[in-house]
Structures are given as C-alpha cells and as structure tokens.
Write a structure and sequence with these properties.
With 545 residues, the chain is of the alpha/beta class. The protein contains 19 helices and 15 strands. Helices cover 43% and strands 14% of the residues. Helix 4 (60-70) packs across helix 6. The chain is elongated, with a radius of gyration of 41 Å. The relative contact order is 0.05.
Length: 545
C-alpha cells in the first residue's frame, strides 16, 4: 500500500482502540512512524537530498557570465560549448570534462535567455481558410495484420482546410509512387484541385534539397511535372518538428483516423480489401462535426466542392519506370526484391512500371507479367506459370521448385492437384506423371482456375489421369455455369459422382458445329456428259463422209 493508505489504516485502528505497540507489530513499522500517522493525515514530503558537489561548481559563475555576455555579442561570434570548455581549461586550469560542461550549458542557457527578456515568444495565430483554396497532405504509419502477418503500412491523407473533408489511402510504402497515386485517388474523390496551395512537409518524394532557412526548395523533376499536370501550387513547412503546426489539420486528422479506425489492428487478406474499408470509413467521417462547428463535414464540403479547380482529362503515369535484365533464374530485381517473368525472356531487358501496390512487366509494349508489390526487403515472388515451359523439359526440378511452394501457400496449387499428381505418378511413372500435371497447369492460361480444379476432381474420381481428360471436364464445368450440359458425366441423383469420363474424341464428334453447306449436285457433270456425247457424234459423222 502507499504511505497515505498506511497512515489511514493506522489511524483507523488507533481510533478503534489498538495500542501503539500493537500497531507497530501489525504494520511492521517503527514507533516513530506510528506517532506521525496518529498526529497527521498526510505523510511528511520526502526530503530531497542536497545536490552532490561537482568539480564544475567553482566555475559555474564564470560560465553564467560568459552566457550573459553573449546576449549582446554578434550572432556569429558567440561562445559554443566547445569554446567555453577550452576557456575553462586555458584560463582557469579547470579539471572538468566536456560532457559536464555541455549538460550545464544546455540547462542554464535557456534560463539566462528567459531572465533577460530576449527569449522569442512562441505564439500561434488563428487562421481562416477560404472554401476551395487550401489543403494539407501527409503520411502516417499504421500497423496492419496483412494475410496473417503483422506489417507496417503507410496512410496517405489529403485534407481540405475549409471543410475538413479528408481522403485516405493505405500503401505498402511511402515512396513517390504512393505519393502520386494518393494524390490521384484523393483529387478524383474530391472532384477537383484546391485553387491556392497544398501544404507539405519536406518529404523526399517532392523535395530534393532544402535551401537554407528560407521557404525555397529544389523539387524533383517528376513532382514538378505532376504539379504542372494537376495545376497544384505547393507550400512547404519548416523542416523538423518546428513546422508541424503549419499543417496541423492533417496531422490531427491522421491521429484521429488511426485511433478510431485502426484500433484494434485490422485483419485483412490484401491492401485492396483494406482500402475498400478505408473508403467506407471516409464516407462515415463525413457525417461528423469537427470541434464546435455547427455543421457536419459533408455540409461544409457541399459549399467547397464547386469552388475547386476541374481535373485534367488526360491521365498521368504515376508508376516509376525500370529496365532490368532477366537473369538465368527468370527473375528481375526491382528495389531489392525479385520477381519472376516467363523463361523465354532470360537474358533480355524488360520494361517494368512500378506502382505503389503492384508492378507490371512489359516486353516490347506487351504485358508479360503482373505481380503484387512485396513489402519486406530482399524477398521474392515467383509465379509457377512462368516456369512451366522449362519444367516440362526438366520434370525432376518440379517437386522442389520455389514457385511450387509459393503456389501452395497462395492456394493456387490445391490438395486436388497433389492427389491427381500422386495418382498420375503411380500410373505413368515419375517423369511422365509430372509432365502430365504440368500440361494440366498450362490449362490455366485458357481456363479459369476453379474450372481446372473441378476438372481435376472429376478426372481423379473417374481415374482419368491424362491432361486431355482434365481439359474436357474443365470445359464442361465452364459450360455448366451458363447452361446445363447433358452428358454421361452428369450424375442421375443429387450428390452422385460420375463414374466415367467421356473421351475427348467422342466429345468432339458429339459437339461438331452444324453443317450449313448446300447438298451436292451432279447437274454440272450431266452437262459435261451431254456436251461430250454431242461432240463424239459429230466426229463420227465427219468420218463417215
């Protein structure tokens, strides 16, 4: 218990008639403590021990005098901590350490400055924002359980200063791609661009260099082009924590959004699913009132939206372009991570457009691969389909392929695949059975994944362990979604599995297209015969003459 509670308990028992000795034994305290508790409700405040003397004590008045003299000295000729330390040693032969001097100066200098009345007064001036003129942008980190793993993502926020209407977007990174895509999404959602300016901090996506203590900045080329495309006027806050209040609206908005919508930590399967939730949260927040305002955010936004500048008609490419070379493992490296491409591109340079959440790979303006962007550094994402042409020549490499393990983890290679593969190897052998499975996997390029899995399940029940049989059943599964298919593979009773699989040759004969050609005619041949008979009779008459 605390000392106040101890005193209260002793006083209560003393009023009940307990002796001083009994109270000492009961609470295991001294007679002096019991006497103090009986005499006073509050314990005596703990006495602070006197400060221990240091080697710097004799020289503290010297340091104070130096700091007071600096108040009137030119700004560039004032004492630094290093200079004060050297003067103490050279002029006073002081045996002190530099950290000791640094701690004292850092504590004492603000006190002397405040006592002189020359300390700058930090004051904040209330601002009035016109409708449609200003906005603020910032990033904030959020923790999300993504596909069962706890990861840190980045919340982009653009907030209109007048209405407080904010648009948010979650990205895997806060790079320039996310910075641009967040702007595009927010401006399209709001339906326009602020007329006057948008406030930013000095993030690297926009600012290449801060020029001294002024507001001037050297901006990145792509950011200049992006601003020009959307007619955005940028305003940069002071660097560091000193400039955070200059865009306090969006700073507070990110904190509000994180506390109210990301607590508890959301669990999602993908960032796309999370961003759908974020869009709904933005709509919900439009019905709230900020502080003591008499109207909601949506009511103020209805006044502000018509005053925004219109958006440009043509789109802006927000992705960043890379041209990596495909290595012998049929992979490319983009931002420390590796992604697979088709094996036919090994040794060639491809064009990669990196977006905030995904990347697209092109070969001569033809899209050849598309991957979800990796979050962790040094990771790889492999698509099993990209390696099938190589694996059909090297079936022995299939069981241990990294792409196969990733396909299993993603649910693309199902237990049905494994069961069919095991039966195929048992019937055809290791190599031929694996090749048959690879031929089945190639069907995913033309048929939907769920239809191929349905075809595998039907073929496995019937014992048809060929790629043709799986292809036939997959096509029948695809057709059954549009119209019922009448055939031998449809069970007569509900829940009954088909016993056989129609052969591909019979199925093709049964599904021949209708013959719309006219019936053949022998009339032209009859005309030829008549003309031949006529010419033959004329020839005989000429011989007779």
């Amino acid at each position: 218990m605390s000392k106040v509670e101890l005193y209260a308990a002793i006083r209560r028992d003393h009023r009940a008639g307990m002796k001083m000795r009994e109270l000492e034994r009961k609470y295991n305290v001294s007679w002096r403590t019991v006497k103090k508790a009986v005499d006073s409700v509050w314990p005596e405040p703990r006495k602070k021990p006197p400060p221990r003397p240091t080697a710097l004590d004799p020289y503290k008045p010297v340091i104070d005098e130096i700091l007071r003299t600096d108040l009137d000295a030119p700004r560039k000729q004032r004492h630094t901590i290093t200079r004060i330390f050297h003067r103490l040693i050279e002029e006073h032969s002081a045996e002190v350490s530099y950290p000791m001097v640094r701690r004292y100066v850092s504590d004492r200098k603000p006190e002397i400055l405040a006592a002189s009345g020359k300390a700058p007064m930090e004051a904040f001036v209330p601002q009035t924002h016109l409708p449609g003129h200003e906005a603020e942008v910032d990033f904030g980190d959020v923790t999300v359980r993504l596909a069962g793993e706890l990861v840190t993502c980045y919340l982009f926020s653009l907030r209109l200063s007048y209405s407080g209407k904010a648009v948010h977007r979650v990205f895997a990174s806060c790079g320039q791609e996310a910075f641009f895509e967040g702007h595009v999404h927010a401006l399209r959602t709001l339906g326009g661009v602020p007329r006057s300016k948008i406030r930013y901090d000095n993030l690297k996506s926009a600012v290449a260099q801060v020029l001294g203590l002024s507001r001037a900045r050297v901006e990145t080329d792509r950011w200049i082009a992006f601003r020009s495309h959307f007619t955005i006027e940028s305003f940069y806050c002071r660097p560091g924590i000193e400039g955070a209040h200059e865009k306090g609206g969006v700073e507070g908005m990110i904190g509000y959004f994180r506390r109210n919508h990301f607590t508890p930590v959301p669990e999602v399967a993908s960032l796309a699913e999370l961003n759908e939730m974020v869009d709904q949260w933005d709509l919900h927040d439009g019905h709230r009132r900020i502080g003591s305002r008499p109207r909601t955010v949506n009511e103020y936004f209805a006044i502000e939206q018509p005053m925004l500048l219109p958006l440009p008609q043509e789109p802006f490419e927000t992705g960043r372009l890379f041209t990596p070379r495909v290595d012998r493992y049929s992979q490319i490296t983009v931002r420390t991570n590796r992604y697979s491409v088709p094996t036919r591109l090994i040794g060639k340079r491809v064009r990669v457009v990196l977006h905030a959440s995904h990347l697209v790979v092109y070969d001569q303006n033809v899209e050849v691969a598309r991957h979800e962007r990796l979050i962790a550094k040094g990771s790889c994402r492999l698509d099993l389909d990209h390696y099938l042409e190589a694996l059909i020549r090297k079936p022995g490499a299939f069981p241990g392929a990294t792409a196969l393990e990733q396909a299993r983890s993603a649910g693309r290679f199902t237990p049905v695949h494994d069961a069919w593969w095991a039966q195929a190897r048992k019937i055809h052998g290791e190599q031929d059975g694996t090749r048959a499975l690879i031929e089945v996997l190639l069907l995913n390029r033309y048929l939907a994944h769920e239809h191929v899995v349905a075809g595998l399940a039907t073929a496995l029940r019937a014992g048809a362990l060929t790629a043709d049989a799986v292809a036939l059943e997959a096509r029948k599964a695809a057709q059954s979604e549009d119209e019922p298919t009448i055939g031998g593979s449809i069970p007569a009773d509900p829940g009954q599995s088909p016993a056989t699989v129609t052969s591909l040759h019979e199925w093709r004969l049964a599904h021949l297209p209708p013959d719309t050609r006219p019936l053949p005619s022998v009339t032209p041949y009859d005309q030829l015969l008549r003309s031949r008979r006529t010419s033959g009779s004329d020839h005989r008459e000429g011989e007779a003459q």
